[in-house]
Amino acid sequence: MIETFWTKLQIKLRKRIDAALSGTHNHYFCFMPKDIGFFSSCLLNLVFSNVKVDKDQTSDIQKHNKDGIVVYVTKHKSYFEFLFYHTRYKKEDIPVPEIGFNYMAFLFQPVSRIFRVLLAHIDYFIANLSLPDPYKSGYIMQELAGGHSALVSLIEKKGFYRRFFKSETDPIQYLIEIQKNIERPIHIIPQLMLFSKKPDRSDPTIIEILFGTEEKPGSIRRLITLFKNPGRVFVEIGEPVNLKNFIELPENRDISITRQSSALRSYLLSKINRYRQSITGPVIKTREELKVNILTNYRLQNFMENYSKKRNVPFQQLYEKADRYLEEIAADFKPAVLKVADILVRFILNTIFDGIVVDHKELSMVKNMSRKGPLILIPCHKSHLDYIILPYVLCNNNMPCPHAVAGKNLFFWPLGNIFRALGAFSIRRTFSGAVLYTKVFEEYIHLRCRT
């Protein structure tokens, strides 16, 4: 009698659990549905309302969604960014990243879904003494194939340890495995959220040590920036990578899937770093650090050694001379001075002219070129306003202030110090007979183009 009752109870309970779970344990917190509820949507929309997103860039995403699967990629793992892209992209009516690779989005899930996921995990654990895996179960592959978009991060805390020591699934390798089993291409679209256009520093400040850097701000710094000065926060969308074409490249086609995933991760990281640098500019180094890098460079060292032997000039004397040349040439860029100059130039241009007309389509092409290599801008130089207006336009359109080359005659006190602080470096009108100066100047340009 008792056994019959217990058996009936088990069957009844099993039916209710199966009905609640729709007959599957494939319910995970890595999936966050578009509709998360009125209260959660309003709260997140309020938090992210002032973050800037370029309409021209988001419109391109829709094109890739029509012929393939959209997967967004960020450099660092960030729940803040995952929630932002999920919230804003729904508002922009473009593919919403509902799947977060290695994310556990718990807080903003609908209550009914939280219950379902917990029930699925408990039921699966009782039967198997382990938790369900969205990778091994094929759940993520099924959702992507069904048209859902995802977000994957290239760098996460303990990610290397989990992949190589605990043998957990590598999201990048998993994407490659999916691509090899489906016909539709996976479009991987880099995403950059920037909290400042200031370039990174080679020597971090105490604020950066305590609250995170400009590239990766901590939670406190991120929230302060978002609420105190939300207009500074903006998103840049990079050029998509067609995964199908990437793995079919001659250099990737015949290598193992592990090496393919390493190559893809490195490629995406370099693209994201290059995108960031095309906006913020290279890492700020002090004049002393620049001088050390150039003066200890093997090419310059070899040149001075040969020059010293041929001309019978002491090497130390050449070294001191090269140091003086660098002191004469090098810029001393300071972002604080650039801020003041921006206000001053804005006032002057609005006073003298009716306004400035900017061809944003052409400027976008210039920005794209800057992501592929060093950018050299050559104005017509009809007046001295050329090198004043050009940096102003670039800085106000999410591009770094260019380092301007200026004649040595302009570097008199106090203007010389101001020009150097704005990124100008000096050049002599003639290099005739100045062999060492020519080599030092060449190495300075080489270092500037490389960084």
Overall mean pLDDT stands at 85
Largest sheet: 7 strands, mixed
Helix content: 40-55%
Number of helices: 21
Number of domains: 2
Secondary-structure element series: HHEHEHEHHEHHEHHEEHHHHHHHHHEHEH
Assigned CATH architecture of the largest domain: 3-Layer(aba) Sandwich
What gap, in angstroms, lies between the N and C termini?
Answer: 81 Å
Shape category: elongated
Taken as a percent bin, the fraction of beta residues is 5-15%
Structural class by secondary-structure content: alpha/beta
- CATH T-level fold name of the largest domain: Glycerol-3-phosphate (1)-acyltransferase
Radius of gyration: 28 Å
- CATH class of the largest domain, named Alpha Beta
Q: Which spans of ≥5 residues are poorly predicted at pLDDT below 50?
A: none
Count of extended strands? 9
Overview in brief:
With 451 residues, this protein is α/β, with parallel strands linked by helices.
Give the helix/strand layout.
Layout: H1 2-21, H2 38-48, E1 52-53, H3 55-67, E2 69-76, H4 79-91, E3 97-100, H5 111-128, H6 139-145, E4 149-155, H7 159-164, H8 171-181, E5 186-194, H9 206-211, H10 219-228, E6 234-237, E7 241-242, H11 243-247, H12 250-253, H13 257-280, H14 287-295, H15 298-311, H16 315-329, H17 335-352, H18 360-370, H19 386-395, E8 405-407, H20 415-421, E9 425-427, H21 435-450
Parallel strand pairs: 1-6, 2-4, 2-5, 3-4, 8-9
Antiparallel strand pairs: 5-6, 5-7
Helix pairs in contact: 2-4, 8-13, 14-21, 15-21, 16-21
